Structure to design on (250 residues):
């Protein structure tokens, strides 16, 4: 099963009202369509036949790589791609159920500074067309993920991660999103430096012990939130995000 379909099952199964619901959903949940792959064909002819026959090409086009929209010229769209790609990457890791909770916590620690920066970027580039939904989106839709990321940041700082190192982690996370294999459920992180790796491991262990696991966190269960103006704006102005369902109303 492709990871996009699996994360859809995780996100769509949400609807619980407390701990133990076991899933997370948002109105920006991934809705990546799984399309059929058609092999390219090339016409060939022989000297003894006048009819045209076809053979399968020996090469296939390369699979797309990375989260779409990260380098969008519109900073609002780019920030939203960064946010949604981050939440989706963590959600996919949880969906497959084979990643230990401390490893999920490690992903959250590495991604925390980048996620907070992305949501700040969404807020600072908010369109006047959406002024009526600004508070609803930033506080109720994106806010729970930001507050969880801020807890991961606190764990990182308490473990001794400096502000400069947090910037390094944000850059590493961006690199991981840009190079993500969209056919694989697990996002691959670049290697951490020898001085940073043990600090991140300590922060992940503390964060994992202190918070409810990502898929069971009731604060991330968002239902009944209607943001039609924002959904329509994203669909119209940020077309790169369509492949991961951003802009689709649930």
């Amino acid at each position: 099963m492709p990871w996009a379909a699996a994360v859809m099952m995780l996100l769509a199964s949400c609807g619980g009202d407390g701990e133990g619901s076991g899933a997370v959903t948002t109105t920006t949940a991934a809705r990546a369509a799984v399309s059929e792959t058609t092999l390219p064909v090339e016409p060939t002819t022989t000297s003894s036949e006048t009819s045209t026959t076809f053979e399968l090409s020996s090469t296939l086009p390369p699979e797309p790589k990375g989260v779409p929209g990260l380098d969008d010229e519109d900073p609002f769209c780019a920030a939203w791609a960064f946010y949604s790609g981050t939440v989706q990457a963590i959600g996919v890791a949880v969906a497959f159920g084979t990643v230990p909770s401390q490893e999920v916590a490690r992903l959250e620690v590495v991604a925390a500074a980048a996620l907070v920066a992305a949501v700040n970027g969404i807020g600072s580039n908010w369109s006047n067309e959406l002024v009526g939904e600004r508070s609803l989106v930033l506080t109720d839709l994106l806010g729970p993920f930001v507050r969880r990321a801020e807890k991961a940041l606190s764990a990182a700082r308490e473990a001794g991660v400096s502000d400069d190192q947090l910037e390094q982690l944000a850059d590493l996370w961006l690199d991981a999103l840009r190079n993500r294999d969209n056919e694989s459920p697990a996002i691959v992180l670049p290697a951490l430096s020898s001085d940073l790796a043990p600090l991140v491991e300590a922060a992940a262990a503390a964060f994992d012990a202190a918070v409810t696991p990502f898929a069971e966190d009731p604060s991330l269960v968002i239902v009944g939130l209607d943001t039609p103006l924002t959904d329509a704006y994203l669909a119209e102005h940020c077309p790169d995000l369509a492949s991961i369902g951003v802009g689709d109303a649930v």
Notes: The chain has one domain: 3-30+69-244. The beta strands are 41-44, 53-56. Residues 119 and 142 are 7 Å apart (CA to CA).
